[in-house]
Amino acid sequence: MTGHLTDAVEDYLKTIYKLSCSRGRVGTGLIAETLGVTPASVTDMVQRLSGEDPPLLDYAKHQGVALTEGGRKAALETIRRHRLLELFLHQVLGYSWDQVHVEADRLEHVISEEFEERVAEVLGNPRRGLHGEPIPSPGLEMPDREDRYLLEMRPNQRGIVQEVNDDDPGLLRFLESQGIVPGAGFVVLDYSAYDDNLRLRLDGSEAEIVLGASITGQILVEIAEPQAGA
Amino acid sequence: MTGHLTDAVEDYLKTIYKLSCSRGRVGTGLIAETLGVTPASVTDMVQRLSGEDPPLLDYAKHQGVALTEGGRKAALETIRRHRLLELFLHQVLGYSWDQVHVEADRLEHVISEEFEERVAEVLGNPRRGLHGEPIPSPGLEMPDREDRYLLEMRPNQRGIVQEVNDDDPGLLRFLESQGIVPGAGFVVLDYSAYDDNLRLRLDGSEAEIVLGASITGQILVEIAEPQAGA
DNA sequence: ATCATATTTTAGGCTATTCTAATTTTTTGT
DNA sequence: ACAAAAAATTAGAATAGCCTAAAATATGAT
User: Which of A154, B33, B132, B221 could form a disulfide with B163 if both were Cys (CB 3.0 to 4.6 A apart)?
Assistant: First the structure.
């Protein structure tokens, strides 16, 4: 078992994990932008982490970075803590949907195994986080996902909101006000390739909602059977 | 308002606060020993902290250190968080008496104002911590105390356990097993100046307990009216 | 008052993390 | 294929903490 990882290292691993879920290997530039540091800092850190005894990163100059198995486990550990903490902050301390992220981002580096276990127990060992994200199991298995971005859906498809990006409080508040929360079912009414707008209606709602690409790219959905009739 | 204080700075201030409660000004050696760093490191840090814009410490070479008003407030803020967290860990997450200290020591540097407030509310704005310590008010007022060390008590005095030093898990487990917890009433039966042993009996208990100086110096008590007779 | 012992401070270094500026490598458009 | 643009890397430096070893200062015992 690797000794203690610093906050910075955990942040790098978590970020690289998330980025490499969509794109495979990731460049230092993207990591830098996501983390809010310069590319030079990333190169530096990445070199250190790929030169450890059991390396956490797989890296060779100019070729983009990927996590090793050890790095992936460490990233999932941090992600598990983050998502448990978000749920905990909401359910036990009454934080709102959009407030939890920032606090969890600091606490995730500091809580003990013990704390994590107790929180999980108090919450009933949840599988999904506050924003619908899957929570890695205690053994750090991450469920395979079939989810797609809402952006990819086409007219007449039915779907269920699975997950909403947790790190933009303003967006979260807006989505909540529109009823777009994990579990919500909906039908896509229309899609405009011209401006990347998606018009949809939530189950049991009269109102239609129009969402642009910048929003629909942040929402993961499970696609249900296609709507009967055209 | 001072910007953000690092974990290390908060630890220094907290330690200096506690040490200067008993002794007035404290030397670098004592601080170093308490904090587990070298005296040289303390000198270094102390010089930085006393040279800030609003200084947190009052210091001049070879003369011992004291907190300024700003330093005192910062220390009390950390102490408030620590004590609220200990209570929270116990009452909400089921930590035991002797487990809370270490976890609180890490969390205290990381939680937000918001977190502190919500925890205080969930706990009902408590005035005393898990081990009986007074909790600074939200406005950082610290109640004046009349408490004495158990060590100072003499035969036939009655007392009530007020506070037990929180940072030694083994000692805490022992004291709990003996019924010596905040709120417990007792009578001092005997005191031996020779070996600094104190024999006492808890209210409603048949058994007598003998405690040595190293223990009785860690327990604060409120002295009640003297025992009738004898 | 003086010398031995204690404590405290200085000096010089190390690590982790970040930065800026300069350089190198890769990609891309033609 | 090759120049221009984009991306990544190196080099050099800063900061916060910490350390060890050496020097300075206090204390206190006779």
Answer: B132
Measure B97 CA to nearest chain A CA, in Å. Answer: 14
Q: Give the ipTM.
A: 0.85
- Domains A7-67 and A148-223 fall in the same CATH topology: no
- B115 vs A122: CB contact, 8 Å cut-off? no
Q: What is the pLDDT of residues A5-54, one digit of tens each?
A: 999 999 999 999 999 987 789 999 999 999 999 999 999 999 999 998 88
**Are residues B47 and B37 in contact, defined by beta-carbon separation less than 8 angstroms?**
no
DSSP per-residue string spanning B156-174: T-EEEEEEE-SS-HHHHHH
| Residues B178, B129: Cα–Cα separation, whole Å | 20
Instruction: List the B169 CA – C5 C1' distance (angstroms).
Output: 36
Domain ranges of chain A: 7-67, 148-223
> Can you tell me the distance from the alpha carbon of A91 to that of A99, in angstroms, rounded to the nearest whole number?
12
Question: pLDDT by residue for chain B (230 residues), tens digit each?
Answer: 567 899 999 999 999 999 998 778 999 999 999 999 999 999 999 999 999 888 999 998 888 999 999 999 999 999 999 999 999 999 999 999 889 999 999 999 999 999 999 999 999 999 988 887 889 999 999 888 888 899 889 998 888 888 888 888 899 899 999 999 887 889 999 998 888 899 999 988 888 999 988 899 889 888 876 544 43
Q: Does domain B148-223 have CATH number 2.30.30.90?
A: yes
B7-67 domain in CATH 1.10.10.10?
Answer: yes
Helix spans in B92-168 (H): 100-107, 113-122
